[in-house]
Amino acid sequence: MKAAFLTGIEQVELRDVPEPKLTNPTDVKLRVEAVGVCGSDMHYYRVGRIGDQVVQFPWTVGHECAATVVEVGPNVKTVKPGDRVAIDPLRVCGTCDQCLAGREHTCRHQAFMGCPGQAEGALAEYIIMQGRCCFPVPASMTFTRAAAVEPFTIGLYAQRLGGDAAGKTAVVLGTGPIGLSVLLAMKQAGASKVYASDIRDSRKALAAQMGADWVGNPEKQDIVAEITAAEPLGVDMIFECAGEQDTIDQGVTLLRPGGSLLLVGIPEVDRVSFNISAMRRKELTVQNVRRQNECIPDAVDLVARGKVDIDPMVTHHFTMDQTARAFDLVAHYRDNVIKAIIHVTDNE
Q1: Smaller CB count within 10 Å for the chain: N or C?
Q2: Same domain flag for 126 and 251
Q3: Four-residue CA torsion sign, 37, 295, 212, 231
Q4: HSE-CB of 41 using CA atoms within 13 angstroms
Q5: 198 and 175 in contact (C-beta within 8 Å)?
Q6: CATH of the domain at 9
Q7: Are residues 204 and 330 in the same domain?
Q8: Strand spans (E) along the chain
Q9: Are the C-beta atoms of residues 178 and 153 closer than 8 Å to each other?
């Protein structure tokens, strides 16, 4: 079968590798149908690392995927051959303190798909996953949508970590796929106003299209001053989705006393800083967001019932043979890309 490998910084190759075989009774063999290109993939592609997770080339990446079940182990009861599924890319041990506490996303022995040293990525014709990672989707849901459910779950989880959104005000700083997912989740949960910003006008326009009450470009206007004019007492929640020092600083300034700063973006640097005087005086809460936890069924349901529309986020489509082109496009923000989907098969 074919699989896409990172072979160096900004280098991608398709290679022939043996098709995986089902050996564990709780596992499932999947035919991969569609894979979304994620910002974390771009960290590995551009700089070869996220923190201490360093790529040893060659390595496969990709984790936002949808698939068809081909074969199931004898202990798998939740899916069957032929099922269309969205995939949770996280394999867990199920027995550590974190798993037993309901925090599988911080499992001590986790293996995340496409993460260096943990598990091979999804950019392959066939993969093996735990049965618990496979969530059936209705026949009416395209594989593109099913793959895009994964980033939406992160936005949904971030919204839930922020607490009850009903009647609250929020700012989403950075409106790539994750920021847009937060926006959708907040609006669906009843936020009174959601402000948004991005340095790319195409993303700013899409945020407005997808429901933001106000959007701005910090390179062209003073977004802090404009949001403060609209919300002189400060906003309830900041979702920092850009992974940049500037947006962290903006968030601290915009929050009301007692507000919450949720760090969703992944910085490429190892350290960031905070205006500790402002944070202390306001008694702000800082909440890191680690992927998602137990949100996939609800995310599938919201998308399937049309409660949220994730389709506008998907702007580009590629075949598997065009994986290198897809990565280059996303890494360098070409052609106003938001979310690129790589179609491993022709099925939809």
Answers
A1: C
A2: no
A3: negative
A4: 35
A5: yes
A6: 3.90.180.10
A7: no
A8: 2-8, 11-16, 27-36, 49-50, 53-54, 64-72, 84-87, 90-91, 111-112, 126-130, 134-136, 169-173, 193-197, 214-216, 235-240, 255-263, 285-288, 314-319, 339-343
A9: no
Say if residue 120's pLDDT is above 90. yes
Mean pLDDT, all residues of the chain: 97
Q: What is the mean pLDDT of residues 3-29?
A: 97
CA dihedral 308, 312, 315, 321 (to 10 degrees): 30
Going by the DSSP 8-state scheme, the letter that residue 19 receives in this structure is: P
Q: Which amino acid is at 107?
A: C
Return the number of other C-beta atoms located less than 10 Å from residue 100's C-beta: 11
Q: Which residue(s) pair with 16 in the sheet?
A: 2
In terms of domains, do 177 and 63 share one?
A: no
Number of domains in the chain: 2
> What is the three-class DSSP state of 195?
strand
**For residue 268, pLDDT beyond 90:** no
Residue 300 belongs to a domain: no
Distances (CA, A) of 135 to 79, 88, 149, 317: 8, 8, 11, 23
Residues 81 and 177 in one domain: no
Give residue-wise pLDDT tens across range 289-303: 999 999 999 999 999
Identify whether residues 325 and 225 lie together within a single domain.
no
The answer to whether residues 161 and 281 belong to one domain is yes
Strands 235-240 and 255-263: parallel
**Phi and psi of 332, rounded to 5°?**
-110, 15
The pLDDT tens digits for 132-187 are 999 999 999 999 999 999 999 999 999 999 999 999 999 999 999 999 999 999 99
DSSP string, 231-283: -TT-EEEEEE-S--HHHHHHHHHHEEEEEEEEE-S--SSS-----HHHHHHHT
Give all strands (DSSP E) within 131-221, no chain letters: 134-136, 169-173, 193-197, 214-216
Rg of the chain over all Cα atoms, to the nearest angstrom: 20
> What was the pLDDT predicted at 21?
97
From CA 161, how far away is CA 86, in angstroms rounded?
Answer: 23
Tokens 């299209």, residue located: 209
348 domain-assigned: no
